Amino acid sequence: MRPKTIAVIIVAAGKGERAAATGIPDPKQYRTIGGKPVLTRTIAAFLAVPEVTQIVTIIHPDHGDRYAALGLKDDRLLPPVVGGASRQASVLAGLKALAPARPDLVLIQDAARPFASARLIGDVIGALSQSEGALPTLPVTDTIKRSLDGTQVSTTEDRNQLFAAQTPQGFRFGQIFSAHMRAATVPRQFTDDAEIAEWAGLRVAMVAGERSNIKITHPDDFAHAERILTGDLAMETRIGTGFDVHSFEPGDHVWLGGVRIPYKFKLNGHSDSDVALHALTDAIYGAIGAGDIGVHFPPSDMQWKGAASTLFLKHAGELVAKASGRIVNLDVTIVCEGPKIAPHVPAMRTVIAETLGIASSRIAVKATTSEKLGFTGREEGIVAMASASIEVPRVD
């Protein structure tokens, strides 16, 4: 079976009047976010998908110079097409431009949605193997009221049956082209291409949309878009804490923070009993909701007898990376009467940094005594407490 040809229509024919800001004449699709025009980012999102074979952009008749100034160059980019007086007419112009090539599938994308991910685009394409149309949607979370006159509530809608539509919307080319041609002959304006498909009797599937796939419509949407680019909305910070204690037993050294320190005792435990790294490892696990050391490295498993605790710490760091997270900072406090910790702090920070692949400036190691009080004051053992601050992708 030959590979499918997949065309994309980018609808950029509007003047962007609702997003116009005082003193800024550029239509929204040509304004910049993060230093790049919105339209450039939208087109780039589809050029990044290898399955896409051609892209046509629909522009306003007055925007030829603006589009040319973008300087876009790619073999898959067709010359821009002038759009019509409505979005529906503009999409039809794009379909007519693609008709000689007769692609198998077509994706239709609003130029003002610059953040469609490769995953989202791929999901829409994938859904077309089973359905005649597909679009990303998000569940409606607000309570929706219906009003007949705009002043009084008539009824409350069942939001469990309501979904907000996004683009790209995908279709089998021949079917959506035929549906658009028919729709152009009736005295009705359709709000999106999925509505035309529904009206024409095509089956339209829903795939999971993305909160970051916003449509830039109003002036404050540009600030929203900038925050998405800088990660303020893409990531969230989580805090984990860890606590560990080990008693002393006869010996001549202790392991603390991955450093071997000569001492009159050693710490009792299944592994190397590095109380500082154990607390720190548990703090990282806690920040990403991954249990504790005992879950991943049970003391009943003899393979961890005498194991270096850097193995546990490295595993926690690998789980952060697997979750697409980032360690922001780590803080460890060691409570003991001895040994002296301060001379070894730089070495501890270095070991921790190298184990996790982060800068030592993100790591704090501190020590204190319990003023001769309690079991640490009686030199019966050592306590360590730790906290971990980690950024992970936001989950709504």
Automatic annotation (TrEMBL):
Domain 2-C-methyl-D-erythritol 2,4-cyclodiphosphate synthase residue range list: 238-390
One GO BP annotation of this record: isopentenyl diphosphate biosynthetic process, methylerythritol 4-phosphate pathway
EC number(s) per entry: 2.7.7.60, 4.6.1.12
Region 2-C-methyl-D-erythritol 4-phosphate cytidylyltransferase, residue ranges: 1-237
Claim: Transferase is one of the keywords in the record: yes
Sites marked Positions MEP for the nucleophilic attack: R159, K215
Catalytic activity entry: 4-CDP-2-C-methyl-D-erythritol 2-phosphate = 2-C-methyl-D-erythritol 2,4-cyclic diphosphate + CMP; 2-C-methyl-D-erythritol 4-phosphate + CTP + H(+) = 4-CDP-2-C-methyl-D-erythritol + diphosphate
CDD domains: CDP-ME_synthetase, MECDP_synthase
One example GO MF annotation: 2-C-methyl-D-erythritol 4-phosphate cytidylyltransferase activity
Assigned protein family: In the N-terminal section; belongs to the IspD/TarI cytidylyltransferase family. IspD subfamily.
Name recorded for this polypeptide: Bifunctional enzyme IspD/IspF
Organism field: Devosia litorisediminis
